[in-house]
Amino acid sequence: MNLNGRVAVVTGASSGIGAAVAQKLADQGASVALLARRKSALDELVSAIRESGGTAASFVVDVTDRNALTAAAALIEDELGSAGIVVNNAGIMLPTPLSRIEDSDWTRQIDLNVGAVNNTVTAFTQQLLRSAEDYGVADLVNTASIAGRNLFPTYSAYAASKAYVIHLSKNLRAEFAPKNVRVSVVEPGIVDSELQSHIADDAARDRLASTRERIEWLNPADIAEVMAYTVGLPAHVNLSEITVLPTHQI
């Protein structure tokens, strides 16, 4: 689990899973680059990591902007070194009944959950390959969801975007594995994070909230533990697909 010498990049690092995994990777010794749009949140997390003895830097960027992300990737390599761990985590969930769907809801989910995932892969591929040569292994970890496999009414665009991430990850693994770059896709169940705050549909929000009566939700630190464990394994071991559920979520 010692990640000393490795550089980690985390997208969507301003809150939730992204913030938790950034802190955890830093605790394990990685130098962490935090990417998101909210500067104040990133700066607070960088300060917390540094205060606990870790190394971190923030890069304010909209990951749906390919050119901006490519420029940020170059800055990260200059400042911290080649990224050897990339946690492709930025995403949004906007469940809406088809009868009331807004084009912008679907577009936002596809732009971030699909487009930004692609942008991140292309922006950091060469760094991952260089890091794999230097350290014998590198890691790309993509955040998906059980929605990518199961049926959730009103979550059509979100579920489809996460199915894309799952299948993309499998195909990337086939290409990257011979080059010592491990690809993992993590598929969480219900996680208590900022993701739920974006839900505008009252019925979807209430239905999700009602599950608290029978299910103890996961928290971001739970997912961070799984991701840190995954990238800390020996180089010949790849957890390629990981489903993480609350014990009582069926």
Key structural traits:
7 helices; about 250 residues; Rossmann fold
Structure overview:
InterPro entries: KR_dom (IPR057326), NAD(P)-bd_dom_sf (IPR036291), Sc_DH/Rdtase_CS (IPR020904), SDR_fam (IPR002347). Belongs to the short-chain dehydrogenases/reductases (SDR) family. With 250 residues, the protein is α/β, with parallel strands linked by helices. The protein has helices spanning 16-27, 39-51, 66-79, 103-135, 156-176, 202-210, 220-231, and strands spanning 7-11, 31-36, 55-60, 83-88, 138-143, 181-188, 241-244. The chain has a seven-stranded parallel β-sheet with strand order 3-2-1-4-5-6-7, sandwiched between helices. Helix 1 (16-27) crosses helix 7 (220-231), helix 3 (66-79) packs parallel to helix 4 (103-135) and helix 4 packs parallel to helix 5 (156-176). The model has no long low-confidence stretch (mean pLDDT 94).
Task: Describe this structure in a few short sentences.
With 250 residues, this protein is α/β, with parallel strands linked by helices.
Assigned CATH architecture: 3-Layer(aba) Sandwich
What is the domain total for the residues? 1
Rounded radius of gyration (Å): 17 Å
Say what the CATH topology is: Rossmann fold
Q: What's the helix count?
A: 7
Give the CATH class: Alpha Beta
Q: Low-confidence parts, pLDDT < 50 over ≥5 residues?
A: none
* Number of DSSP strand runs: 7
The name of the CATH superfamily reads NAD(P)-binding Rossmann-like Domain
Class per helix and strand makeup: alpha/beta
Order of neighbouring strands in the sheet with most strands:
3-2-1-4-5-6-7
Mean pLDDT: 94
Helicity, as a percent range: 40-55%
Family: Belongs to the short-chain dehydrogenases/reductases (SDR) family.
InterPro entries: KR_dom, NAD(P)-bd_dom_sf, Sc_DH/Rdtase_CS, SDR_fam
Domain Ketoreductase: 6-194
Protein name: Short-chain dehydrogenase
